[in-house]
Design brief:
The chain is built from 8 helices and 9 strands. The protein is an alpha/beta fold. A hairpin with a 4-residue loop joins strand 4 and strand 5.
């Protein structure tokens, strides 16, 4: 994965140049490619037992959907080859941009590609997806994994879209170090199978790989994965440690977050395995 290391080094050099010579007032980020679009199709009916809510307007703090067009196109290509039903969004540690990457990629695939997408929060120790919902449900993915509620009772449809969210019932207000104590990883594999059958694509906000015990094992339950690395924080040693734990042949791409100081946190797609290998 020398290309990832090289791209990370170039991004750090670019950050240093911006620090030394910041852009003039009013400077804007370079234009991004147009998002992939697909013919508009009627929205499928939402199951009667599924709640509907909206996302917070504070989404404008996140990178624009168009910033994910390259990654979206890669995912659509793999789906067309019947190679991809689920994708885990993985990273080294906290605050590396995994949740925002997962959320915006899921929104992009639902809105621009017309896919029925389910976004699952499996970062049970530090969950974040429920904080983006105007009305998070009283139950969550933990309850589904432990057979306390049905899948429909925990799912949330984002109003007017083909995006569904399966959040954790917990919030970011505190960490939950014992969150996985009652969860059997076999249940995660069974949930993955159910989601594969029900949705066009499942995206997973995975636990931090270097700080969470089940992170690497959990990512292995899904077809492929994306590595999120944060410029200036994630080290090459972190990247090497992750690649030792996970199957690099199932790496769809690497997203570099917060690499350009003047435009906030627009992601950059660095690339992944040239030939995706299914399990």
């Amino acid at each position: 994965m020398g290309r990832i290391h090289d791209a990370l080094r170039r991004a750090e050099q670019a950050r240093e140049r911006v620090l030394e010579d910041p852009p003039a007032a009013g400077a804007v980020a370079p234009p991004v490619p147009s998002a992939v679009s697909s013919p508009v199709r009627p929205l499928p009916a939402v199951s009667s037992g599924v709640r509907t809510t909206r996302l917070h307007r504070t989404l404008d703090r996140l990178p624009a959907l168009a910033d994910y067009s390259d990654l979206q196109w890669r995912v659509i290509q793999l789906r067309g080859q019947r190679l991809l039903r689920s994708l885990a969004i993985a990273g080294a540690a906290l605050d590396d941009g995994r949740t925002s990457t997962a959320l915006q990629l899921a929104r992009s695939l639902a809105k621009e590609a017309g896919l029925e997408v389910c976004l699952v929060d499996l970062d049970l120790e530090h969950p974040g997806l429920s904080s983006w919902l105007e009305e998070p449900p009283p139950v969550g993915v933990e309850d589904v994994l432990e057979d306390r509620v049905s899948l429909d009772e925990a799912l949330v449809n984002i109003e007017g879209s083909t995006l569904y969210v399966l959040p954790s019932r917990s919030t970011l207000s505190a960490s939950h170090p014992a969150a996985w104590s009652g969860v059997n990883l076999v249940a995660v594999a069974k949930l993955a199978d159910r989601l594969h059958q029900r949705f066009d694509l499942t995206l997973v906000d995975a636990p931090a790989l270097l700080t969470s015990g089940p992170g690497a094992d959990l990512v292995g339950d899904f077809d492929a994965w994306i590595l999120v690395i944060r410029a200036g924080v994630t080290t090459t040693h972190d990247i090497d440690s992750i690649l030792e734990r996970l199957d690099g042949d199932r790496l769809v791409g690497t997203v570099l977050t917060r690499s350009r100081l003047y435009d906030g946190s627009a992601p950059e797609l660095l690339g992944g395995s040239r030939r995706l290998r299914m399990r």
